[in-house]
Design brief:
The protein has 128 residues and is mostly beta strands. Strands 1, 2, 3, 4, 5, 6, 7 and 8 form an eight-stranded antiparallel β-sheet that branches.
């Protein structure tokens, strides 16, 4: 953004995520199957700054956190060392996001970002 409006800069978007999964399953010569619970915790933040006459000031900041909890399961079919797999993750998200701004009279806002996540995945897996 500094290339477009030289006095504004955006801090790097920072996100930290911890993922804890416990999967159980089985492997056979022509299929693989797995399932188990999953827990994910994430935090994120960034900010917008103005650099006016050698006086840097934070105009707005954005931060939040979320906890996902649920499960995942998958199956893969193939032969010997090459498998085609599909996995489905279903999780509940509980979290908040908030902004603070020096230019707003209220100082900022907070919102609930809770919801339900359906995350399908497909893969071509090779064992070499």
């Amino acid at each position: 953004m500094g290339d477009v409006i030289p006095v504004l800069s955006v801090d790097d978007f920072t996100r930290w995520t911890t993922d804890l999964s416990l999967l159980v399953g089985t492997s056979r010569s022509w299929f693989r199957i797995w399932a188990g619970p999953k827990l994910v915790y994430t935090t994120f933040d960034t900010s917008l700054r103005a650099d006016l006459y050698m006086n840097e000031q934070e105009l707005a900041s954005f931060h939040g956190h979320g906890a996902y909890y649920g499960g995942q399961g998958g199956v893969a079919l193939g032969y010997r060392k090459l498998f085609l797999g599909v996995e489905l993750t279903l999780m509940e998200l509980s979290g908040t996001a908030s902004t603070s701004a020096t230019t707003l009279p209220s100082g900022g806002r907070s919102t609930d970002i809770s919801g339900f996540v359906v995350y399908p995945a497909f893969a071509l897996m090779g064992e070499f």
